[in-house]
Amino acid sequence: PRRWLGTWIGRISVVARNVETPTAALDPAVQFFHRPTLLGVAEEELRVVSGAPMDSLQLLETVRRMRATPLYTDVTVEGSQCGTAGETDLTFTTRDRWSLRGGIRLADGGGPARFSFGESNIFGTGRSISLAQEDVDGRRATSASIADPYLFGTRFRGAATFRTYGDGRAWIWSVRTQDWSPRDEWRAAFTSRQLRRYSVDDPTQPSIDILRRDDALTLSRLVLTQSDAVYAVVFGGEHQTANLAVYRTGPMLGTPDVRREFTAPVVGLARRSTKYATVDWLVPGQAEAELSVGIEGELVAGVGRETTANATITHVDGWIGATTMPSSGTILTADAWTSGYWGHDSLSNGSLRLVGVLYQRAARGFWVFRASSERLYN
Asked: What mean pLDDT is reported for the chain?
C-alpha cells in the first residue's frame, strides 16, 4: 500500500496457526501428530528488520520465501499505523501445512516398487527426514535422508542422503547458503557424493569393485542487475575420482586397478529471473501464488588434466529454462540440460536432456501435457 511507502518499520510480529481441520473434533489428533512450526523458524525467513526504512522489494521477497517453504499453506502480512508517526507495524500470519507424508507405488507385477515415509517439519523446527525402499534400475534400495534449512542456526542449509543396495551403497551430502532472493550478492555451495558397486556372487568369476566420488565447491557473485533479471559469475573447483578394481584367481592380463582422477577450477555465468506472474488455479481454494517467469540458466566449465590419459580435458555443465504465461489460464515451461567432457578430438560422457510442460486450466482442475527427450553421447 502507498501509505506504507516512506515510513519506517516498527514492531514485527508473527502469528502462527496450526493445520486447518474440517472440524474441531480433529484438533486434538492434529496437535498430536503435527507440532506447530516454531516462531523462530518463521523469523529466520524475514528479510525486513525493525527500525529500517520500509522496502517493498524486501517485503515481497520475504513473503515469497515463506510461501516457497514446504511449511505453510498460506502466508499473509498486515501493516498498521498508529501512535508514533511515520512507523508501520508488520504482522505476518502463517498457516501450517500438514507435514507427515507417506506413499506407495506398485510395480507391473503388483508388488510395491516404492514405499516411502517422511516428516518435513520435525517438532516444528523446519527440519525434515524421510525413509524409502524402492527398486532402482532393477536393484532393491533402502535410503534415508535428512535436511536442516538452518544448519547450526546459521544461514547455511545442510542435507544428506544415504542409500544401500544389495551390491553397493551411495551417499550424497551438501552444505549451501540459503537462497534469500534472486538478488543475493553472494551464494556458496559444497556438494560431495560417492557411489560404490561391487560383485562377489561367484568365487570362480572375477570380483569387480567400482568406486566413484565427486566433490564440488562453487561460489557466485552478483555482477549485474536489470529490471527483469540479474547476472552472477560462478567460480570454484571440482574433483572427481573413479576407481575400477578387478580381481580373479589365476593369471591376469594388465593391472587389476584402474584409477582416474580429474581436478579443475570452475568458472561460469548464471542468470536469475526477477519477474513474477500471479496464479490462482494451480491449487484450488488457496490464496493466489506468484510464479517466477522469464529465462534462467547457468553454464560452467572446468579445464584440467585427466590422469589415465594424461591429457587436458574440459568439463562443461549447464542448463537453461524458460517459463511464460501466454494467458491467465496457461503456463508453458521448457528446460534443457547438457553435460560432457571435451578432449582434443572427442566428446565423452555427454548428455543432452530436453523437457517441455504445458499447464492448461480446465473447468475442474487443469490439464498437464509433458514431452521429454534425452540423448547420450559416447
From this structure: 88
